[in-house]
Amino acid sequence: MKPVDTSFCLAHLLVCVNQRHNSSLPCCASGDAEAIYQKLRGWIEAHNMLSRIWITRTECLGWCHVQGSTVAIYPQNIWVRAMTLEDCDALIEEHLRPLLNPASPTRR
Ligand code: FES
To answer: From ligand 1's centre to the CA of 43, what distance in Å?
Structure first.
């Protein structure tokens, strides 16, 4: 086992795109999950930050009892649930754009 150097990673976004089959329980895929993933990834890519701001599709993150999708951002430990595609701009401005600024206190 070898540890991985992640010191260059500013943030890792976990975007739940879980699809429940054969269940009446809500799931992120029944909302905007894939579109949210694509929009956030597109923004990161447009800023040439894919190597420093990671984004991963995930299975259930455990907050799907409300309509909408779940996104977590680490190491900032920011969790957003009931997220819609329209919420992406606010998430970007509040949590991602500051990572582009070297003076940002959230940058490692
Ligand atoms: S299905 Fe997305 S948080 Fe559960």
So the answer is: 23
Task: Establish whether residue 80 lines the binding site of ligand 1, counting it when its CB lies within 6 angstroms of any ligand atom.
Answer: no
pLDDT > 90: percent of the chain: 76
Q: What is the pLDDT of residues 6-54, one digit of tens each?
A: 999 999 999 999 998 888 888 999 889 999 999 999 999 999 999 999 9
In a domain, 47, yes or no: yes
How is residue 30 annotated by DSSP?
Answer: G
73 belongs to a structural domain: yes
Nearest ligand 1 atom to the CA of 26 is: 1
Is residue 15 situated within a structural domain? yes
Range of the domain at 88: 11-99
Ligand 1 centroid distance, CA of 63 (Å)? 6
CATH number for position 51: 3.40.30.10
Distances from the Cα of 91 to the Cαs of 3, 5, 77, in angstroms?
31, 27, 14
Residue 66 has pLDDT above 90, yes or no: no
Tokens 């150097």, residue located: 5
Q: Which atom of ligand 1 is nearest to the CA of 81?
A: 3
Cα 33 to Cα 19: distance, rounded to the nearest angstrom? 10
